[in-house]
Design goal:
The protein is built from eight helices and eight strands; from the N terminus they run βαβαβαβαββαβαβαα. The chain has one domain: TIM Barrel (Alpha-Beta Barrel). The protein is of the alpha/beta class. It holds the Pfam family Ribul_P_3_epim.
């Protein structure tokens, strides 16, 4: 079964809670929350105060993606707020093994994200520790981009790596996914789809959610 994590980066910030609750009613499985610092990626987004303001207002688990230079500075607050999953970028962690273990020891699921051009070899010695691996299918920082085609080969390679090692981490895919290309993403090996613009700009959110989960024809 494919899970759907709705990226609130594409929500209407003036009506953020309404959009979150609409997505929940439409059947999404998680809220994908991108924290951007303007350094690791060329954009600013949410911080801890915004996340704190929506805690308890939705039953959806929070799936937090740290696009920051200093992820270690966010971990304690995110654990305190009860987020379900914390994703850190391999490119921003000098001590990736330490970071993943710190998150897991706090009782939170720990995931590693890879930018489009980052090879899977960076996972060689830590993939066994991961609850999930996030493959970015756009260059991170902005919503509404088009999926980079070669990244689907990377998703397929990651699925093969998982099978060869006999592991069970989830494969999450984020960037430029819509109802037109989601089937290719699922066929490549995605277990968790991240989508924002496609969901929050939809005229029929429930139908869009069904399609993004691979149910039914476009």
């Amino acid at each position: 079964m494919v899970l759907l994590s709705s990226s609130i980066l594409a929500a209407d910030f003036a009506n953020l809670l309404d959009d979150i609750l609409n997505a929940e009613r439409a059947g999404v499985d998680m809220l994908h929350i991108d924290i951007m610092d303007g350094h690791f990626v060329p954009n600013l987004s949410f911080g801890i105060p915004v996340i704190e303001s929506i805690v308890g207002k939705s039953a959806l688990p929070f799936d937090v993606h740290l696009m920051v230079d200093n992820p270690d500075e966010y971990i304690n607050d995110l654990v305190r707020l009860g987020v379900k999953n914390i994703t850190v970028h391999a490119e921003s962690c000098i001590h990736l093994d330490r970071m993943i273990n710190r998150i897991k020891e706090s009782g939170v699921r720990a995931s590693i994200a890879l930018n489009p051009s980052t090879p899977l070899t960076v996972l060689d010695y830590v993939v066994e520790l991961c609850d999930m691996v996030l493959v970015m299918t756009v260059n991170p920082g902005f919503g509404g981009q088009k999926l980079i085609p070669y990244t689907l080969d990377k998703v397929a390679d990651l699925r093969a790596l998982r099978e060869n090692k006999g592991l069970n981490f989830l494969i999450q895919v984020d960037g430029g996914i819509d109802t037109q290309n989601v089937q290719k993403v699922i066929e490549a090996g995605a277990d968790v789809i991240v989508a924002g613009t496609c969901i929050f700009k939809s005229d029929d959110m429930a139908r869009t959610v069904e399609l993004l989960k691979g149910r039914g024809a476009v």
